[in-house]
Amino acid sequence: MHLPEEGSLLRIFIGESDRHDGKPLYEWIVLQAREQGLAGATVLRGIMGFGASTRVIHTFKIERLSEDLPIIVEIVDVKEKLEAFIDLIDPHIKAGMVTLEKAEIKFYRADKH
After folding, report:
1. CA 74/CA 92 separation, integer angstroms
2. Whose CA is closest to 87, among 96, 95, 98, 78?
3. Which residues pair with 72 in a beta bridge?
4. Is 72 within 8 Å of 44 (Cβ atoms)?
5. Strand 6-15 relative to strand 97-104: parallel, antiparallel, unpaired?
6. Contact present, 8 and 69 (Cβ < 8 Å)
7. Residue 59: pLDDT above 60?
8. Where are the domains of the chain?
9. Which of 25, 33, 62, 102 has the lowest CB atom count within 10 Å?
């Protein structure tokens, strides 16, 4: 797969406890991204954060271990494909935030063993 130099970065901010059909929502999002032929997806687990629906700070401190830490799913591809993907996942995200920004792609390649 080839990506042009001008791409976009999609960031999906959700909670670790968010679910879709009993599975973690972030897992469902990554599987959907692969099915849609997007270039790739990465899931990042935050150590601290809060969101729109709760002003409670969720943290990874041992004395106050949260079961709903922040999750960020990042996907880079062309803007048009990412906008279509947003339309696909939007109805399944009950709480969270989605951002889309320009990204300059320096290279995208696979290791050829």
Report:
1. 17
2. 98
3. 13, 44
4. yes
5. antiparallel
6. no
7. yes
8. 15-104
9. 62
pLDDT at 66: 55
Task: Read off the pLDDT of residues 67-110 as tens digits, 9 standing for 90 and up.
Answer: 678 999 999 999 999 999 999 999 999 999 999 999 999 988 88
Residue 61 has pLDDT above 60, yes or no: no
Alpha-carbon gap, residue 53 to 61, rounded angstroms: 21
Residue 38 DSSP SS3:
coil
Contact 101, 76 (CB under 8 A): no
Q: What token pair was written down for 80?
A: 């048009």
The DSSP code sequence of 92-112 is G-SS-EEEEEEEE--------
- In the three-class reduction of DSSP (H, G, I as helix; E, B as strand; rest coil), residue 5 is classed as coil
